[in-house]
Amino acid sequence: MYMARERVEDYRSRLLNLVQDQIRHVLDLLRKTLLMLEAANRDEDLKKLEEIYSQVLKTDEAEKEARRLVEKEVSEIGAILTNREDFIRLVNSIDKIADTAEGVAFRVLGLAKARMKINKDILNSMSKLGEVVLQTVTKLREALLAVTLNSDTFMQKTKETEDSERQVDELYRNLDLVILQSDMKVGQLLLVREIVSMLEDIADRAEESAETLRVLSFVIL
After folding, report:
1. Which residue in 54, 170, 188, 193 has a CA-CA distance of 20 to 30 Å to 107?
2. Residue 196: closest CA among 136, 116, 127, 119
3. What is the largest CA-CA distance in the chain?
4. DSSP one-letter code for 105
5. What one-character DSSP code corresponds to residue 100?
6. What is the dihedral of CA 110, 137, 166, 132, to 10 degrees?
7. CA distance 74 to 76
8. DSSP type of residue 182
9. Structural domains in the chain, sorted by start
10. pTM higher than 0.70
């Protein structure tokens, strides 16, 4: 019985290491996406944005490979890991963060290709929103790193993830109103609103991931 329990703990530790690798790629992808937003704000040439987007796609593929490794491990471990569905739920939720961040990058590139001129104040607010979104995902990663170490630290980091997500919500709602009241053409307005909405969705996914991680923590801590 003791040996079986020890094996399960080893499996969980291995899986958490793989999930930590996955979210490291997600953060890298999100940072590159925000670099594209900043480059668009500075009116940098299209080639620069295309170069960054190429890096986004490579990082997205690295994240997908990390997710596949977790799924492979869970499949091989089998029924001995009773909370395997929670691990799958966690990596899928984190994967959706990567998908959404790549979608933001694609649309920012679309803005640049269409030579759409966006109000600088709105672009600055979008960058600010992006920074708080990044902060939210960073807090999620810190919670992942803390889950096997200390229950108080872990709970603090999950709370910080939730608090940061609420900051994103407030920024998003205010910015959405500003966009709706702007004099942008319909095509521009729809695309900018979609980018902003997707950034907010990333924070929602981070909070969702933190909640799944909290469920996992009941058998880890």
Report:
1. 170
2. 127
3. 68
4. H
5. H
6. -60
7. 6
8. S
9. 2-220 (1.20.58.220)
10. yes
Residue 119: both structure tokens together? 């109000």
What are 169's two structure tokens? Answer: 């919500």
Closest to 57 (Cα-Cα) out of 95, 18, 90, 101: 101
Residue with tokens 């040996």: 3
Q: Which one-letter amino acid corresponds to residue 149?
A: L
Q: Amino acid letter at 40?
A: A
